[in-house]
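Appendix B. One record, verbatim.
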Amino acid sequence: MSVGKGIVRRDGPGKVTGRTRYIDDLSEPGMWFGKTVRATIPHGRIRAIRLRDDFPAEAVIVDYRDIPGKNVIALIEEDQPCLAQDRVMHQAEPILLVAAATQEIANRAAAAVEIEYEPKPPVFSIEASLRGEEILFGQDNVFKSFRIEKGSLEAGFAAAQRVVEGTYRTGAQEQLYIEPNGMIAMPDGAGGITIKGSMQCPYYVHRAMVVLLGLPPEKVRVIATYPGGGFGGKEEYPSMIAGHAALLALKAGRPVKLVYPRDEDMLATTKRHPSITRHRSGVKEDGTITAMEIDLLMDGGAYATLSSVVLSRGAIHAAGVYKCENVRVTARVVATNHPPYGAFRGFGAPQACFAVERQIDRIADVLGLSPAEVRRRNMIRAGDTTLTGQRLTESVGTEAILDRAIEVSGYTAKRARFPREHRGNLRRGIGLSLFMHGTGFTGSGETKMAAEVGMRLTADGTVEVLSAATDMGQGTETIFAQIAAATLGIPPEAVRIVEPDTARVPNSGPTVASRTCMVVGSVVARCAETIRERLQSEIAEREGIPAASIEIREGMVLRPGKAPLPFAEAAAAHLARNGPLEVHHRYRPPAWLHWDEARYQGDAYPCYSFACDVIEVEVDLDTFEVRVCDAWLVDDIGTVI
């Protein structure tokens, strides 16, 4: 059984020896190099574009008029252009593209472009966006809004003995993956194009290219190279850089590589959404929360990108890991003139959970209670319902993780001792927080996605897994090999993971939302079960024995009264008699999942993960420097794969 056992990671040896090749390590014959010319103001109109006399004559240049399809980056909303036409919405907006035989020439070409603007007043804050003095999107600058209600807020406040209010802010956050964004686009000479690069979601890029380039799906091929990290930052933005590389390649008639230097990557790509969350809580003197009124606001930047799904998850997680029968959450994400914000680990939940955790601390302070005990009194336990009315019946480890975190950190004693211990201008502190996170797409998302996985049996006994899931360092290849091997009864070494390539693998959905192991992994297991059952049935029929009497363990087929048969021999015999064996399955959510999209009520996720973190810090009261002295992280993670 390979699941639950530690094995050597598939990607480990290549990475530690330097053999793994990332996008900037790759080259193509006759390849040119690209560069993006970006806006230098946050908001305005383009009045004129001029090329200086020193613009290299051998360079190619692309603008919006060179786009053969629609000038959009197709995602949820189609509001973001691939290249600005006449309006600039943020100070990294792509306007022109250039390519040349060397990166140095391409850089010189980009520097020789002069753009004249008519500036407009920029909107840089959530508050300014809501005032609506400048309309950037729709009628009111609101990309998306949600309202979730549970019970009666009025009754909850009527039952309260105190009302505690607080406002909490989080800022933008850079993913800082170790490898910047990069793509190579290669025209095939027959009207099609192949794009390979660093990405989390090959089929996102594929769909975006079909729309942008006006090509039939079969004319677009997308290959995911090994991504050097992603953390959500390579979910939707790769469609932008892929589009730019593709446009340059089609114009130049040759392969073009476009890789961002670190400063450009940090300037232009998506970050975690800044947020403002206002809490108004009704509480009893013993710390019981009777009402929660929560207003969640997020800055979406200049275009919608993934803001609606980030806001959705934030709204669902706004009450955190706490049970309360009377809750109202109002959530909005608004347009500003910042570069668009996007996905980052947890996408929406960290902002919401940070705010509710600070509110719990405030409640404890107002009531003179221990923050740990206020959490314990209000935390969700098995049998309780979440904000959306989902009843949690298993894997609810809230109390166990809180107890363990307090124990291993010495939280109670340190919290009592630290206020008395002064070392000059230094003060020591300790705090704890709880966290919950829904796994997979929200609500009916996985039903709509219907992730598909394929599996192929080969004559040498190797099993090939066909999936679009990428391995950006989280261990996808190893996990899938373990799941397939455990299900089939063969060693993990006999499982090969096919490279994510839209010409070779089905659409198993994006590698996001902590869905890969749970959702895609379950489809890998179903495919393996089907192959195992077909092998057992064929052997049983041929040998006249019950299929249930045949086992496959440790790479051997075991039959009653007969010598063990190597799996590879059984595979070769099956293929010789029956021809190729390749199976495909789609993800089927549990039958008990019910979700009301209109009311945002029901089973938001198949399951939740829970964590408790305790952090010990030292603060310099003169310089406000914070040093993390120690950290204890306790997670309820279920079965380790």
